[in-house]
Amino acid sequence: MRNWKLLITCSLLSMPGKPDCQAAADRWRDQVLDEKIRTVLLYREGWNLSYPVIRLNSGDRLVLDFDLLSDSPETYYYSFIHCDRDWNESPVFPTDYIDGLQEDQIEDYKQSFNTTVSYYHYRLAFPGERMKPRIAGNYILKVYITGNPDKPVITKRFMITDESAGISGNVTRPLAGESYNTGQQVNFTVSFPGLKVSDAGKEIRPVVLQNGKWYDAKYDLKPDLVNSNELRFGTLSQDNIFPGGNEYRYFDIRSIHYQTEYIRKIDFSENRYHVFLTPSENREFKPYFFDRDLNGNYYVAVKEGKTMETDADYLYVYFTVPSANKLEGGELYVSGALANWEFNNTNRMIYDQSKGEYQCSMLLKQGWYNFEYIFIKDDEEPGGPSAFEGNHFETENDYLILIYYRKPGDRYDSVVAASVIKSTGQQVK
Known about the structure:
The chain is built from 5 helices and 30 strands. It is mainly beta. A hairpin with an 8-residue loop joins strand 11 and strand 12. The model is unreliable at 1-25 (pLDDT under 50).
């Protein structure tokens, strides 16, 4: 067995900086701020691969799942924070956007059963009778230990729409140009016959996300056509073109007894399971090949158990990318929902000169996972995949379109419409 102890130690102890609540309030984002908390998922009830968007006063609910790796439980509370379109805290009082309690306890938790890693699984479904949002817009779900609201352990974004506008659209291959073979153009129309809009180009603001990722979302798109109750985006602008990327890589660790595709070896040592993936090939210059994926997401599942939330074990998963030389001017990361779409020491790959490969280990719960490799240049923000993955106009992707509206005199942005458009042509509410 390879000497991976250093990587394991880094993945457990080298966590990103933990900003306090005041620093985070400048711009809230999805974060897990306690190294003992893993497998944090937020989705619409009934569909665990959905985006965290619900309709105001509709009966829709969101579900938060997470695990605390510990032999004893902790008492957690949660609250909501209303944010503007850019995820800065809105200048409105909690009583203006929350009906009921200002905070509440997460009461549903269960201990893991017959696992090598002990944990408690927590589940929260909201809105509930004791606490519910009153207005549409961006929200942060903040989870914290009893008595420590200024030191959250989890912050997760979610959106509530009042559906006072509508969206229709499609995804096309860009016109001839540098993105012709590698990009995808998102075209859409926003209709708002029921809104009082005096300057639609300024008061109606869309945001577009590819596969739910916020780090490369498209802001400040300009409409190509403005009518009295309709805006059209996409036909004339280049700003709505995304890199197509590639179908995500995947692995299946639902079983600890069978080696599925892309798993080279499963070991049990030091009372832990260790799963070694097949070394990943460079796909940057390879032709496109369709493969059904989860668009970077994952779901928890276990074959040797009955209840996936508490019977699924935690395994060390090892990623390797052969490379004759270390890539200069940046860092390589394992990316996807398995890393909370973040880039830090928990998913940064370490280059081993003696073996001629990049290596990374991650502690993951049993299930089915998507991932990709992203190289981030020094002093640059994360962008679309290119090195190691390639970009193709044929790639199947989801595009989540959010429409924000702030009428003159209002102190906050509302989400008035939300829709998912697939590059294959299907539109999903």
